[in-house]
Write a structure and sequence with these properties.
Shape: globular
Helix content: 40-55%
Distance between the termini: 10 Å
Low-confidence stretches: none
Order of helices and strands: EHHHHEHEHEHEEH
CATH class of the largest domain: Alpha Beta
Largest sheet: 6 strands, parallel
Strand content: 5-15%
Mean pLDDT: 93
Structural class: alpha/beta
CATH superfamily of the largest domain: HAD superfamily/HAD-like
Number of domains: 2
Radius of gyration: 17 Å
Length: about 220
């Protein structure tokens, strides 16, 4: 049995390698609105990973001078992203093995995502995992973005478990801070897009989802 009663997964970037898909959807909206985005060293649009779409678009609207309404920008990108998500998304390497091992050890599992529930639904249904999760929390349930702890506190409340009995798995600095602000332990598995962020507040920084340090920390290996 795991040392912890509950493991809560972030979805985008942790469970799935979604950042290139997100970036492509942002790029297409920029093109439609005759705007040219700044790209980072990975060739990605410079949106903020790990916060709600509406908050991202407000930042981008202020930065680039979009005349379109934020709600329009959110909805247009949403439609493009959903098309891309269903066609091309895959689980990050090592996630399924870790997930199955936790289930065998009677660990309760949840998703706590800053993405809308329709995106969470696509992922759990695409990979046949819906019945294996004890709770699904999305941006639809929230008023605040990470690093506010709301997403993780709402998840703990749904599971009727105290925060100190939960471990969060994240891939971003804002996610780590959100989990710590909720009073939970945090494992971070950086992606190639977040590897240079500050993870000093994490309890464990892992090299990949296959890293045996994760299994040792959780008491399942």
């Amino acid at each position: 049995m795991s040392k912890f009663r509950v493991v809560i997964f972030d979805m985008d970037g942790l469970m799935i390698d979604s950042e290139p898909v997100h970036s492509k959807a942002f790029e297409r909206v920029f093109e439609e609105c005759d705007k040219i985005p700044n790209l980072d060293t990975e060739g990605m649009v410079d949106y903020v990973i790990g916060i709600r779409d509406k908050d991202n678009w407000q930042l981008l609207k202020d930065r680039y001078g979009f005349v379109e309404d934020v709600d329009y920008l959110v909805e247009r990108r949403r439609k493009i992203y959903l098309e891309l998500l269903e066609k091309s998304i895959q689980l990050r390497e090592g996630f399924r093995e870790l997930f199955d091992t936790l289930k065998k050890n009677d660990t309760r599992l949840a998703i706590a995502s800053a993405s809308p529930m329709e995106q969470v639904n696509i992922i759990v249904d695409k990979f046949g995992m819906r019945d294996d999760f004890d709770a699904l929390v999305s941006a639809d349930d929230l008023k605040e973005s990470k690093p506010n702890p709301e997403v993780y506190l709402v998840t703990a409340k749904k599971l009727a478990v105290s925060p100190e009995n939960c471990v969060v798995m994240e891939d971003t600095q804002t996610g780590v801070e959100s989990g710590r602000n909720a009073g939970m332990r945090v494992i971070v598995v950086p992606s190639q897009y977040t590897k240079d962020q500050d993870f000093s507040k994490a309890d464990l920084v892992a090299n990949s989802l296959e890293d045996k340090k994760i299994y040792s920390f959780l008491g399942i290996g």
